[in-house]
Write a structure and sequence with these properties.
Length: 244
């Protein structure tokens, strides 16, 4: 469903920050890109969402080459980035309606879908309040609802639990698990190994732009000979990270 084939990225004339990365994500699974700050997670996510062009390599989503079928890709993906800013003077209710019209969604059943989405995340009591007056967690949950407004089969979320407390974070991860159970294809990035461990079916460990190992938590523990995923991650990081 998502195929990343030998993808590299260089910004301006500097060195490659993503270096020949390849992986597949199958429907019904959650793939986690796990790596420290600066590893290249956001760069990879932006390329998958067609917002950055790979310097080398190819990305296919639902069989479509992202550099050819850009409009088709936009309909198929729900994309969330840490950079998204909601209009501070708007309200969740108005923003939802605005994005629904942007995607040209049928009006039939829209109100019901909005209320269902808002209820699931506890947004309903705040739906007519200004964004500027809402908490970080509430804004993130609204961004999530809006990024999935068109019911996409592929979900690309960059650090979806960024800035969220443990309760809100659990609401989001439970939702992602449900979406995977429905057969959607999910890729997320995180630097939090406990999140990758509890949520992802497969994890790609990204160090300095390279996927240095991938597999389930069990696979990565046995590959490194470690009992805990935390130790496995540190082992992979220290063996592959070059200082300077
Ligand atoms: N627009 C840009 N121009 C030049 N270099 C960039 C640009 N965006 C990112 N980089 C560099 O690319 C590398 C990867 O950055 P990226 O943002 O993809 O990492 P990340 O894994 O998402 O990190 P974080 O956990 O901090 O979000 C870093 O060295 C960063 O400085
Ligand atoms: Mg990032």
């Amino acid at each position: 469903m998502i195929e990343v084939i030998n993808v590299s990225k260089r910004y301006s004339s500097d060195e490659m920050v993503v270096k020949g990365v390849s992986f597949d994500v199958k429907p019904g699974t959650i793939y986690g890109l796990l790596g420290p700050n600066g590893a290249g997670k956001t760069t990879l996510m932006l390329m998958m969402a067609t917002l950055l062009k790979p310097t080398e390599g190819q990305i296919r989503i639902c069989g479509n080459d992202i550099s050819v079928d850009t409009l088709e890709i936009h309909k198929k993906i729900g994309f969330l980035t840490t950079e998204v800013k909601l209009d501070p003077l708007s309200t969740p209710d108005k923003l939802y309606d605005f994005f629904a019209s942007l995607y040209d969604l049928p009006k039939d059943g829209l109100e019901e879908r909005k209320i269902n989405a808002f209820n699931r995340f506890g947004i309903t009591p705040f739906m007519n309040k200004r964004i500027v007056d809402l908490s970080t967690g509430m804004k993130q949950k609204i961004s999530i609802c809006i990024s999935l407004i068109h019911d996409p089969p592929v979900i690309i979320f960059d650090e979806p639990t960024n800035g969220l407390d443990i309760l809100t974070s659990k609401q989001v991860t439970d939702y992602l698990k449900d979406l995977a159970k429905e057969g959607r294809t999910i890729i997320l990035s995180t630097h939090i190994f406990s999140l990758a461990e509890s949520l992802c079916d497969e994890i790609g460990v990204l160090v300095d732009g390279n996927i240095v190992a991938s597999g389930s938590v069990k696979d990565l523990c046995s590959l490194t000979g470690k009992d805990s995923f935390e130790d496995a991650f540190f082992d992979l990081y220290t063996k592959n990270h070059k200082e300077g």
